[in-house]
Amino acid sequence: MDEDDMNKRREALRSRVQAQLKASEEATEMRKKAADEELVVDSSDLDKAVEKAAARLQAKIDELDDSDRSRILTLAASLILIGSVLGMATGGLILNGNPDELLSSTLFERADIVDITGLALEAEEGRGIANITVQLLDIDSDELIVETETDENGYFRFKEVFSEPMTLRVEADGYEIVERDFIPEEAGLRPITMTPGDGVRIENDISSSDGWTIESAVALSTFIGVITVLTALVGFQAAVEVRRAKKYRRTQYLAGIALFSRGLILFGPLLILIGMILLVIAKEQFADIGGD
Known about the structure:
By secondary structure, this protein is an alpha/beta fold.
């Protein structure tokens, strides 16, 4: 092969290499351009997509909150209703008591015949006085009913005495005479204090009816029973108002009144109070607070 052929071949080889390099550069440039075009995104479209996704997420959150608050209202209504039912039952138990049976029961009946015990004490030293005369007298006529003496310790006892007003007369030499009006009871007498001296000391242990009588206690119990039932009925209305979820303050006021229903003394009001707390948590569900 001569030198001309060698030069031609070198020139042809150089041309092919240059052509391949140029083609490679063009291909690289095209790939780069295509990649840049793929990465270019309209920022406004991206913002819209983000906003739309955020709106959907917030809607889901709001829907979840509404559902939770609705469940809280249901629980509050249930607690108020249960507390009111307990109050109604308690009021019914109070009112079912028969006042006539209560007044005639042995619990309040005074015994017809009782034993009387007492103690006579010396005023200055506080010791019992022995062998002094103790008499029971008719309160109207001062007629002697029965008589006894104190023992060595100053105690005395009357057996089987009618439980009706009478006078106790205690007399000893060197001491004032004590005359005490009383009604005999099984509980016994308060100690009789003997004071040195002359004369008669009058005592009255028959108390006037200025305190609570059994009739007054029964009347008060009946009043409490009626109030308990009425406030329990208000509690039923409060539970209905919770389910309606229209007026928040009205509902809370009704529930507050239902606290006086006294269901099982404490348990019913406690349930109603918990229901009122739940209403505070879910008050946005009410039409006059959160709106529709």
